[in-house]
Amino acid sequence: MSDETQAAPILTERRDNVLLITLNRPQSRNAVNEALAHAMAAALDELDGSDDLAVGIITGADGFFCPGMDLKAFVAGERPWHPVRGFAGIVQQPADKPLIAAIEGFAVAGGLEIALACDMIVAAEGAKIGIPEVKRSLVAAGGGLRQLPRKLPLNIAMEWALTGDLVPAERGYELGLINRITAPGAALDGALELAAAVAANGPLGLRATKEITLAQFGWSDEEFWPRQDAIWQPVFASEDAVEGATAFAEKRPPVWRGR
């Protein structure tokens, strides 16, 4: 049995209130197989299920993010989908809590679709991103064709999807797809810095803010206000809301309890 077979396809590490999720199939440059998809889903369950965790970071082992689906495993009959969370255990149902992708090397095809399922992206200089599926007469069916037109101007999204060309991370930053660019090898450090800024905030407010921001795409103008009210009102009635206001008045850091 190879080292790759024995190794866990996903590694998780808690760093204070941040869960670091590492794609860990370096011999295949972290390509997605069935085991990785199910392990990713379990890691997101851990993130959402723990009151001690506020933010998740997804990164890749050995200087690469992910090239997408493991084609050898696919030909052998594996299907890298989770029954609830979808491809790679994330694209159809990401975590309820904020997620940050930290990209080194490349995030292409399904690898970019994993990153697009996150809420923010930090990438190293020189990293490549793209959805090249059409170059193999395939379709970016893991969410890329849904997410890119939401996050880029439509004509740019069309160009990326229809040419299949890879794009430097710097171009993604210019277009607003990528939040921060770091020096090569420093994407994880940049993501940890961003995660710390997010995780310092109230956990109930974070989850509600993410839910409203993403769910609103399916709401009409008339639906927006009552649906938003149903999400924010319990947050305003929480102990944490009182603590936030009290801490501000007393000029001290708040102590969140998640209730």
Automatic annotation (TrEMBL):
Residues annotated as coiled-coil are none
According to the UniProt entry, its GO molecular function terms are:
catalytic activity
Question: What Gene3D superfamilies does UniProt report for this protein, alphabetically?
Answer: 2-enoyl-CoA Hydratase, Chain A, domain 1, Lyase 2-enoyl-coa Hydratase, Chain A, domain 2
The record's comment on protein family reads: Belongs to the enoyl-CoA hydratase/isomerase family.
Name of protein:
Unannotated protein
User: What is the scientific name of the source organism?
Assistant: freshwater metagenome
